[in-house]
Amino acid sequence: MSLEFDWLFLAEIMLAGLGAGGLYALTGLAFVMIYKATRVVNLAIGEMLMIGAYLCFGLATAMNLPMWLAILVAVIGSGGAGALLERVAIRPMLGESPIAVFMVTVGLASILVGVVELIWTSEPRRLPEFMPATPVMIGEAFVPSKVFYGFLVAAVLIGVALAVFRFWRGGVALRATASDQQAAYSMGIDVPKVFSLSWTVAAMIAAIAGVIVGAVGGISSTMGVFGLSVLVVVIVGGLDSVLGALVAGLLIGVVESLAGGFLGGEYKLLATFLILIVVLLVRPYGLFGTHEIERL
Amino acid sequence: MRRTVLKSLLATAILSATAGLPAARAADKEIVIGGSIPMSGVFAFAGIGIHAGIQDYVKMVNAAGGIAGHTLRYVPEDSAYKVDQSVAAFKKITSQNKVNFYYGDSTAFSKTINPELDRAGSMIMSGASFATELNDPKKYPYQFVAGPDYTQQFGILLRYIAQQKPGAKVAFVHSDTEFGRDPIETSRGVAKALGLDVAIEIMTPPGAVDVSTEIAKLRRARPDFTIFHGYILGPIPEFIGQARQMGLDTQFMGTFWTMDNSTVMQMGELAEGFMGVMPYNYYYDQSAPAPMLDKIRAMRPEYQNVPYIQGFLSAMLYAESARRTLAAGKEMSAANLKAALNSIENFDTGGLIGVPVTLRGNTIPVGRIYRADTKARRMVPASDWIVLE
């Protein structure tokens, strides 16, 4: 490499980082959705993403559905599964201590991995190709097609989610429930329905993220670890902030990519967790999270 | 309640006391293979194959009358590919049986259990690990690897590369895991000695999904050959796909755990031309007479993966060292079994490996380069067998 700084390389890894960040943000959105409505820290988000990807895989390969239909059915199916999980595992925990509910989601994660290994075994697999293979060039910079389209899908979905929260009745109900459950109840909002809705929508978003993550990196019963990176994203962004998930997702995607590009792959996680520590020290409730004041 | 417990305890004690005599006699004429086998968990696809391989070989030997009047008995336990569970399985199996051979499921287990093997002095072990570190007879006197260790696998690949294109530029792409880092340091020197230029080493974090950054680096290094290590499947297809999209002309290669037929074929069209090192013949190989493969195909008409062959060969090597120890009239101790194993020279594996094998140190440093043919959905040989000296 010449002594001159390789600007194209910088551009390419920044774009790659944004692409990865889009996926972080999208999965972070699913996480925030659940936290905002139900105050449940859902550690099973990575596994919900995995279930979505595997459903899609099963429908596309075993049942030979065309890929677009497989994705659609998988997303709807995941939504159903999300509603079911909420009804069976989460709602009975209403009013229990947050740590107990948290542990239920840890258990859920484990069960979901077991389900996948039972049905599809633990062998790593590939989703059928469904995105155009021609690379996208932004100026002279090369952007892999999957990363580009994945980012587009993530951006659109996040935009829709922001709009829904703002304008749709259900979204407003969700925000109302988030800010004060008792008040929401007394205003006639069906709070259990809001809970169910939030898990359904989050599971659907996670399924879409799962299909994209699976298309990029392949699917396996360990792909749920992606959820761990997302946990960092939402903590940095603020657990209850959609905008926070968006900004932190992109930030962490880009920082990881820069660290990987200029320092080496072993520095990626180091960079991520450094950000986490710094943010926790400076703004313990995240960049955009609600600053809760507890008075004793 | 208490009385019933006592009663049943007593009954068990009497039963085992009376059953003890014939059982002990039978045990004298037994050779026991224990195993921490990953039948569940992330490594189950390999574990199930390994299990079937060991089981089949044991069945074959026993059907043919055993070894010098001894029958083989295989005692497996599921390890779920977790070290603590593997160790628990080891304790359970070795406390209930007089184990002569043991199959371990991971590098971590091989390292953890090593002092235990040294202390017991009664069994030798191999396993699913091809770790370079295990190829040290001083540190691991009672262990061996039923194939080439990872550095030797790289050595075979690099030798092939040097033959094909002297002075070629090579890239190493590996995961940031113990498995991934294993051969990198040592192979740098091997490449240099062969006159190759290691243009770039790229490390990917474990569980990395998007590898675009790494591919941007790879593209700038413009290697003629790119060797992946420390992965099973992901993110290899993504590397190949993106490299093809950007017109990067490099030959991609893999090591053992990527090279099973079904794993490579999962890459679909991207697999075309993918190469790698494999110490064994594939299940379907018909290119040379292979009586053992014929028997395997007769027993199991459907494709068996390479972990199956590895398990099968491991059991074969166990049996061979037992045979040699018994033939020499020696006691079945770890030292004698290992000495017998190390006396194996130009051994015919019945075609599991295409050339007669010799154990050097703790490994069998042999392999062949294969190339994926996606039309036939098979791995086809791209080189002769390469034996490292």
Which terms summarize this structure?
heterodimer; A: 296 residues; mainly alpha; 11 helices; 2 strands; 71% helix; B: 389 residues; alpha/beta; Rossmann fold; 2 domains; 4-stranded parallel sheet; 13 helices; 11 strands; 43% helix
Which term fits the overall shape of chain A? globular
Number of helices of chain A: 11
| Fraction in beta strands of chain A | under 5%
CATH class of the largest domain in chain B: Alpha Beta
* Major sheet of chain A: 2 strands, antiparallel
Main location (chain A): membrane
Keywords (chain A): Amino-acid transport, Cell membrane, Membrane, Transmembrane, Transmembrane helix, Transport
GO molecular function (chain A): transmembrane transporter activity
Organism (chain A): Thauera aminoaromatica S2
What does this 3D model show about the protein?
- The complex is a heterodimer of chains A (296) and B (389).
- Chain A starts with 6 loop residues before the first helix and ends in a 14-residue tail after the last helix.
- With 296 residues, chain A is mostly helical.
- In chain A, strands 1-2 form a two-stranded antiparallel ribbon.
- Chain A is globular and about 65 Å long.
- Helix content of chain A is 71%, strand content 2%.
- In chain A, strand 1 and strand 2 (141-143) form a beta hairpin.
- In chain A, helix 1 crosses helix 9.
- By secondary structure, chain B is of the alpha/beta class.
- Chain B folds into two domains: 2-148 and 290-358, Rossmann fold (3-Layer(aba) Sandwich); 150-278 and 367-387, Response regulator (Rossmann fold, 3-Layer(aba) Sandwich).
- Helices cover 43% and strands 19% of the residues of chain B.
- Chain B has 13 helices and eleven strands.
- Chain B has a seven-stranded mixed sheet with strand order 6-5-7-8-9-10-11, with helices on both faces. A four-stranded parallel sheet of chain B has the order 2-1-3-4, sandwiched between helices.
- The longest helix of chain B is centred in the N-terminal third of the chain and has 27 residues, at 2-28.
- Chain A binds chain B through residues 1, 6, 9, 12-13, 15-17, 19-20, 23, 117, 121-126, 129, 133-135, 142-147, 213, 216-218, 220-223, 225-226, 257, 260-261, 264-266, 268-269, and chain B through 40-45, 176, 202-217, 219-220, 232-235, 237-238, 241-242, 245-246, 262-263, 266-268.
- Chain B: Belongs to the leucine-binding protein family.
- Chain B: Residues 1-26 form the signal peptide.
- Chain B: It holds the Pfam family Peripla_BP_6.
- Chain B: Keywords: Receptor, Signal.
- Chain B: This is Extracellular ligand-binding receptor.
